[in-house]
Design goal:
The complex is a heterodimer of chains A (341) and B (420). Chain A is α/β, with parallel strands linked by helices. Chain A contains 16 helices and 13 strands. The mean pLDDT of chain A is 86. Chain B is mainly alpha-helical. Helix content of chain B is 64%, strand content 6%. Chain B has 17 helices and 4 strands. Chain B is extended, with a radius of gyration of 30 Å. The chains are: A alpha/beta (341), B mainly alpha (420). At the A-B interface, helix 1, helix 2, strand 2, helix 10 and helix 11 of A face helix 9 and strand 4 of B.
Chain lengths: 341, 420
C-alpha cells in the first residue's frame, strides 16, 4: 500500500509541476505541406543556440486551426501552419476563444504537380479535361450524368487511349482542398455549373465531388507512397506538392497543364495554373510569454530562408516575388495583425 | 463402398489435411522472410555513413584563438570560414555556382563537425589534420548505390560537376564508410544524413517506464483481489466481462480518451511521454490483468489450503505462497503487454506525439517522439535518405520487441512450476 501511495503522490507532483512550469519551447501545429519547410527553419533556428528548437506537429491545416484557435495560454500552440488562408469560420472560433490578435505570414508558393512515371509519354491536360476525368457527375448533352469516361480518349480524342487511373489525396489533406478549388472548381464546365444551380445546389461544392467508381483511387496522406506507385505503373497519375517532384526527378515527371509545365518561375508568377500560397499564423498574445517567437518569425522570413536563394528553395519552396516579399517581411518585423472580424 | 475403399479415403483425407497445414506454414514463413528481407535490404545501409577525408589546418590565427585555447574558447569560436576554406581546397572550382555545388557535397553542419573534432583532439591546434566529414544525403545515397547515376542531368539531384568531384575523390580513396553513430545519438533532423533516433529512443523509454510504473502495480492488485478475495457474484462477473472487452478495444479509442481527459480536462502538456505513458497504461492494464489472473488461477488450491491449515491468514496465504508462485506468469504477461505498448502508434497520433522534435528529451514532460511514430514520420518525407532510415528504425524497434518477447518466454520456461 505504501508503494501505491508513493506512486500516486509522485504522479500528482508530476502533473502539478508540469502545469505550473512555463513553456520555454515554441509549439507549432498545422499543415503537412508546410511541415517540411517549417521543420528546416526550426532546426536551423535551434542550432543558433539562443533558443530551444521549436516542436512541430503535423496535424493538417484544419486540425491545426482548431488547436490554434482554442485559446490563449501556454497549453495552446503559438503558431499554426496552413496551406490555405484562414477561413471566416475559423476566425470566428478564434475570436470566441479570445485569440483576437493574429499575425499572418505568407511563406511562399507551392505548385501542385500532376505527375506520372518517367517511362510514360509526355502529357498535357486542360483543367476541364482533368475535371471530366475526376468528377462524380459530368454534363453530357445538357444533362448531368454519373461520370461515364473510362479512357482518356473518351474525354477528348486528342488524349491517349489509356484507362483513366488517378491517385488522389484524402479529403482531409490541404492538397486536396487546393486541388478542389483550383482544378475541380475552375475546370468545372459552365453547363454543369448552371445545371447544379438550377437544382438549387451549390455549384462549387458539387463540382468538387470526385467519382467513386474505381477510376480515382484514394491513396492516403502519404505522398511518398503515391510516388512509388506512380513509378511502378506508367498508366497512373497522381497529384502532390512540387517538393515531391523535385526530390524524385529520377522516377516521375510532371504533365503540363494548359501547356505549362511546373517550374519555379511559373509557380512564382502563377503562370503555372495550379499554384497556391502557403501561410503560417502567429498568436500575438504569446509573444513575450514564450521566448523566441519574434526571433523565429524573423528567421523564417529572412532572405537566408525564404529569399530567392534561400535554403527553403532547395527543398522545393517557391519563393515570393520581390515586391510581395517586402510586404511580408514588414508584416513580420512589425508584427502586423490581421482583421478577424 | 467397401471397407478397404473407406479406409483409403480416410488416409487420403489425412494426407490432404497434413498438406494444407504444411502449405499454410510455408506461406506464413515465406511472408515473414519476404518482410524481413525487404526491411533489411533497405535499412542495412542506414547503419553506415559516408564521409570524405578533408585536410584541415587548425590555424589559431585564422580562428582568432590564443595558442593554448581552452575548450570554452573553442566552443565560442566560429569555424565557418575555416571549414569553407578547407572544403574548397578539395577541388578546383570556377565561379560561385560551382563553389556552391562543391559545398553541397557535404552535410550543412560541416563547421560544427570540425569544431567537435578539435574539442575531442585538443592537441591538433596549429596542425594540419585529416578530418572525415559527413557527406550530404545525395552523395551518401549515391555512394551506397541507392541512387542511379546513369540518368540525364536534369533528372538527377546530383549535378554533373558534383559527379566529377565524387569520382575524383573516390579515385583518391578519400570517400569512406564509417559506422553511423549519428543514427543512435542525434535527434530528428531534416537532413537525412544527420537524423537519428536518439530522441525517439528516449521518448519510448520514458513512455514505457511510466506505463510500467502505472499499470504493473494496479494490474497486480486488481488481479489478486479479483482472483483471491472478491466474492463470486454478478458484480464481479460484470467486471470480468468488462476487463475482457477492454482488452479488445482498438487502441485509437484510448488515444481519444487521452486527448479528451488528460489533455482536455487536466491540461497536461501535449506531445510528452507522460501523457503517452498514462494513455498506454490504460490500454495495457486489461492486457496485463488477464494473464496475471490466469497465472494466479494456475496455482493449485492445495497450496492455499495448506497455508490456511497451518494457521496462516488469508492475506498471508496469498502474499507468501500464491503470489510468489505466480510471478513467472505475471512477469511474462507484463512484458508482453509492454511490448505491445512499445509498438503502438495510433493513440500517440491523437495526443500529439507525431511531432518534429530535435532536442533529446531529458524528462518525461519534455516533448518527444517515439520509435513507431518516428517510422511514420520518416516514411512521409520526400528526401531519399529517409527510406533507409525508416527501415533501420523498424529494425531497431523489431529487435527491441524480439528481445522483450524472448525475456518473457525465458522467464516463463525457467521459473514456472509444473503442477502434476
Amino acid at each position: 500500500m505504501k508503494k501505491l501511495n508513493i506512486l500516486l503522490s509522485v504522479l500528482v507532483l508530476l502533473v502539478f509541476a508540469s502545469s505550473v512550469q512555463a513553456r520555454d519551447q515554441i509549439k507549432i501545429v498545422g499543415s503537412s505541406t508546410v511541415y517540411p519547410y517549417a521543420t528546416v527553419v526550426a532546426e536551423t533556428f535551434g542550432k543558433g543556440g539562443k533558443f530551444k528548437t521549436p516542436v512541430i506537429e503535423s496535424t493538417g491545416t484544419g486540425g491545426g486551426m482548431k488547436l490554434f484557435c482554442a485559446g490563449v495560454g501556454t497549453q495552446h500552440p503559438d503558431i499554426t501552419n496552413a496551406s490555405r488562408a484562414i477561413k471566416s469560420k475559423e476566425k470566428a472560433l478564434c475570436e470566441k476563444n479570445g485569440v483576437t490578435e493574429i499575425i499572418e505570414i505568407v511563406v511562399g508558393n507551392d505548385g501542385i504537380t500532376f505527375a506520372h512515371s518517367v517511362n510514360a509519354p509526355e502529357a498535357d491536360f486542360t483543367k476541364e479535361q482533368l475535371w471530366r476525368a475526376l468528377a462524380a457527375k459530368v454534363d453530357i448533352d445538357g444533362k448531368l450524368v454519373a461520370n461515364p469516361y473510362k479512357k482518356w480518349s473518351d474525354i477528348d480524342s486528342s488524349l491517349p487511349s489509356k484507362k483513366i487511373e488517378i491517385m488522389i489525396a484524402p479529403p482531409t489533406s490541404g492538397t486536396r482542398d487546393a486541388w478542389n478549388s483550383l482544378v475541380m472548381g475552375k475546370g468545372c464546365s459552365k453547363a454543369a455549373k448552371s445545371l447544379y444551380e438550377a437544382d438549387g445546389k451549390k455549384a462549387k461544392k458539387e463540382c468538387a465531388k470526385m467519382r467513386e467508381d474505381g477510376y480515382a483511387v484514394e491513396a492516403g496522406e502519404n505522398d511518398t507512397l503515391i510516388v512509388q506507385k506512380l513509378a511502378s505503373n506508367p498508366d497512373a497519375f497522381g497529384f502532390f506538392g512540387y517538393s515531391y517532384l523535385v526530390a524524385n526527378k529520377d522516377k516521375i515527371k510532371a504533365s503540363a497543364i494548359n501547356g505549362v509545365e511546373p517550374s519555379l518561375e511559373g509557380i512564382q508568377d502563377y503562370s503555372y495554373p495550379i499554384a497556391r500560397p502557403l501561410f503560417f499564423y502567429v498568436k500575438k498574445a504569446h509573444i513575450g510569454v514564450v521566448p523566441g517567437i519574434k526571433e523565429f518569425i524573423k528567421a523564417f522570413t529572412s532572405k537566408k530562408a525564404m529569399g530567392s536563394n534561400g535554403y527553403l528553395t532547395d527543398i522545393g519552396l517557391v519563393p515570393l516575388a520581390k515586391d510581395k516579399y517586402k510586404i511580408v517581411r514588414t508584416a513580420a518585423t512589425e508584427l502586423q495583425v490581421i482583421n478577424i472580424k | 463402398m467397401n471397407k478397404d475403399q473407406l479406409l483409403k479415403k480416410r488416409y487420403r483425407a489425412e494426407k490432404r489435411f497434413k498438406f494444407y497445414g504444411l502449405v499454410s506454414i510455408t506461406l506464413a514463413i515465406l511472408f515473414v522472410i519476404f518482410l524481413v528481407n525487404v526491411i533489411f535490404s533497405k535499412g542495412r545501409t542506414a547503419f553506415q555513413r559516408t564521409t570524405i577525408a578533408v585536410e584541415v589546418n587548425f590555424n589559431t590565427e585564422e580562428l582568432e584563438l590564443s595558442s593554448n585555447a581552452s575548450i570554452e574558447e573553442i566552443q565560442d569560436a566560429d569555424f565557418y570560414d575555416l571549414s569553407i576554406n578547407s572544403l574548397l581546397k578539395l577541388y578546383k572550382t570556377e565561379g560561385a555556382k560551382q563553389e556552391k555545388e562543391l559545398l553541397r557535397v557535404f552535410s550543412p553542419d560541416h563547421d560544427i563537425e570540425i569544431k567537435n573534432f578539435l574539442i575531442k583532439n585538443l592537441d591538433n591546434l596549429n596542425k594540419n589534420v585529416i578530418v572525415n566529414l559527413t557527406t550530404s544525403d545525395d552523395i551518401d545515397q549515391l555512394h551506397k548505390g541507392n541512387y542511379p547515376r546513369h540518368l540525364p542531368e536534369e533528372r538527377r539531384r546530383i549535378s554533373d560537376f558534383q559527379l566529377l568531384i565524387y569520382d575524383q575523390l573516390v579515385k583518391e580513396n578519400k570517400v569512406n564508410k564509417v559506422f553511423n553513430t549519428f543514427f543512435f545519438t542525434n535527434g530528428d533532423s531534416r537532413n537525412p544524413e544527420l537524423a537519428g533516433i536518439g530522441g525517439s529512443l528516449f521518448g519510448s523509454f520514458f513512455t514505457i517506464i511510466i506505463t510500467l510504473i502505472l499499470s504493473f502495480p494496479i494490474a497486480i492488485f486488481a488481479s489478486i483481489y479479483l482472483e483471491e478475495f472478491a466474492p463470486k457474484n454478478r458484480i464481479t462477473d460484470f467486471i470480468e466481462i468488462n476487463i475482457n472487452n477492454l482488452a479488445a478495444v482498438p487502441s485509437i479509442v484510448f488515444g481519444l480518451l487521452g486527448l479528451g481527459i488528460l489533455l482536455g480536462t487536466f491540461d497536461l502538456p501535449r506531445s510528452t511521454p507522460l501523457v503517452a505513458g498514462i494513455t498506454l497504461s490504460l490500454m495495457t492494464l486489461p492486457r496485463i490483468i488477464i494473464p496475471c489472473r490466469a497465472s494466479l488461477k494456475a496455482v493449485p488450491p492445495s497450496i492455499r489450503e495448506g497455508a490456511l491449515a497451518v494457521g496462516a491468514s488469508k492475506v498471508q496465504s496469498v502474499m507468501h505462497h500464491v503470489v510468489p508462485l505466480s510471478i513467472p506468469g505475471t512477469l511474462s504477461g507484463t512484458i508482453i503487454g509492454l511490448a505491445q505498448a512499445l509498438g503502438e502508434t495510433a493513440p500517440l497520433i491523437l495526443i500529439g506525439m507525431v511531432a518534429f522534435v530535435v532536442d533529446i528529451p531529458a524528462t518525461p514532460i519534455d516533448p518527444s517522439a517515439s520509435l513507431p511514430v518516428q517510422v511514420y514520420l520518416w516514411s512521409e518525407q520526400a528526401e531519399r535518405g529517409f527510406v533507409e532510415k525508416t527501415s533501420a528504425t523498424i529494425m531497431v524497434l523489431l529487435s527491441f520487441l524480439i528481445v522483450m518477447n524472448f525475456i518473457a518466454v525465458y522467464l516463463r520456461q525457467k521459473f514456472e512450476k509444473k503442477w502434476s
